[in-house]
Each structure stands twice: as C-alpha cells, then as structure tokens.
Write a structure and sequence with these properties.
single chain; about 80 residues; two-stranded antiparallel ribbon; about 55% strand
C-alpha cells in the first residue's frame, strides 16, 4: 500500500488521504468513513481529474463513496470518503 502522506478529518467526519501519482494505476489507501480502518484501493490516473465510485470497507463491509480528485498544480490525488 502507498503510505498515507497526511490525512485529516473535518467536522462532518469526512476523511482525506493524499498520494502522488507515479503511474497509470496506483495502489492507494483510504480511511473508512464508518469504522475508521484503513483500506487499500486502486486509483486510475488516466481516468481523469475527478472520479467517484463506491467501495466496501474491507473490515466492516460498509459502502464508502470515494471522491478522488487530482490537483494538477501539486501533482497529488486526494481521496475523500463518506458513507453511502
């Protein structure tokens, strides 16, 4: 798993994780919005600047909506999660 390069919770419990793209498909981590456990996922850099999809937590099985955005100026992806 690509190590998390920082993370934060906001007042609504939305979790963010950051990673730097190095290739077309990246293994990335996200924190479950339900139980808080870290999960592994793949991010496709070639899919575009913004992506959204649902992935179940590998621990508690709750569906998480992953909001993936790519900041061209910093070259970083941000993964924001919330429960479906």
């Amino acid at each position: 798993m690509v190590p998390n390069q920082g993370g934060a919770d906001n007042a609504r419990g939305v979790r963010k994780s950051y990673l730097r793209p190095r290739e077309a498909a990246l293994t990335a981590g996200f924190q479950c919005a339900g139980c808080g456990e870290w999960n592994e996922t793949s991010v496709e850099a070639a899919t575009g600047r913004t992506q959204e999809y649902v992935e179940d937590c590998q621990v508690c099985c709750k569906p998480n909506i992953l909001h993936v955005t790519w900041d061209r100026s910093t070259g970083e992806f941000t993964i924001r999660t919330e429960l479906e």
